[in-house]
Design goal:
By secondary structure, this protein is mostly helical. It has 13 helices and no strands. The chain folds into two domains: 64 residues, no CATH class; 205 residues, MetI-like fold (Orthogonal Bundle), CATH 1.10.3720.
């Protein structure tokens, strides 16, 4: 019993150290966002309690974001692109996964193998060909150019497909024999039974799009379509870095995914663990 207690204490200390390594930089960014620019690094060396407790509290950084920097439009762009990607992406990827899991057609295994390859290849490899395609379609510097390339996602198709594979085929075939069309089966039977994996897929699409930086940099040129990850690079200028505004923008950029993930984390875990990955 004493050995078990010592192991528990050891793992508790390890987890505490990891938590500090993860949370302290976030805490420093949060505190620094409420400081004047001249006070950001004043108490970093030597390290003291003032490092994480501001001596002069100000909301100038947040005020500047929405007045001088136009972050209202930037947040609207990011929410719009992310929301449309999640809604349309869940529909497209689940339909593809339903076909891969329940239908037989020529080249099915080859196509699914190509789907698996898509989320194993770094995005940097396909960035230039994708830009040429989007440019040919006339979608550069448009919402189409930001949204459409992020709709189809190989990992999301894989998650849906593995979940659908565990669904009883007899249930779907009996509904089809009773006169239900495959579209009706998909909307009335399959998707209502797929709540955990649907939430997991939606969260993955949300995070992919919310945290996207390279593609929005490539695909947009004007401030009209700027998203939050790209906007945060504007705080670094030739002569200075506006650290307080950058930390404020980072805080807001982190806060939104956290508020989305925390209430849905139970479904996210259920969706990932119930997709047949264990096979």
């Amino acid at each position: 019993m004493s050995k078990g207690k010592s192991n528990s204490a050891f793992f508790f200390c390890i987890h505490l150290i990891i938590a500090c390594l993860v949370l302290l930089p976030l805490l420093f960014a949060l505190v620094s966002s409420f400081r004047p620019l001249t006070e950001i690094f004043r108490y970093v060396s030597p390290f003291s309690w003032r490092t994480f407790i501001p001596t002069e509290l100000t909301f100038d950084a947040y005020t500047s974001l929405f007045t001088a920097r136009g972050f209202g439009r930037i947040f609207l762009n990011t929410f719009l692109v992310t929301f449309v990607t999640v809604i349309v992406g869940v529909f497209i990827n689940s339909m593809a996964a339903f076909a891969f899991s329940k239908f037989e057609f020529r080249g099915k295994n080859t196509l699914f193998l190509l789907v698996l390859v898509t989320f194993m290849i770094p995005f940097e490899v396909i960035a230039i060909p994708l830009y040429n395609l989007v440019d040919h379609l006339g979608w550069i510097d448009t919402y189409w150019g930001l949204i459409v390339p992020g709709l189809a996602n190989g990992l999301v198709i894989f998650l849906f497909r593995q979940f659908f594979m565990d669904m009883p085929t007899m249930l779907l075939e009996s509904a089809h024999l009773d006169g239900a069309s495959w579209s009706t089966i998909y909307t009335k039977i399959v998707m209502p039974l797929s709540k955990p994996v649907t939430i997991s897929a939606g969260l993955l699409l949300f995070l992919f799009q919310w945290e996207s930086f390279l593609w929005p940099v490539i695909a947009t040129r004007s401030k009209q379509y700027k998203v939050i990850q790209v906007a945060m690079s504007d705080f670094v200028t030739e002569h200075a870095t506006f650290w307080n505004e950058m930390f404020a923008a980072c805080t807001l950029a982190v806060l939104v995914p956290v508020l989305v993930l925390l209430p849905l984390q139970k479904y996210f875990v259920q969706g990932v663990t119930g997709t047949g990955i264990k096979e």
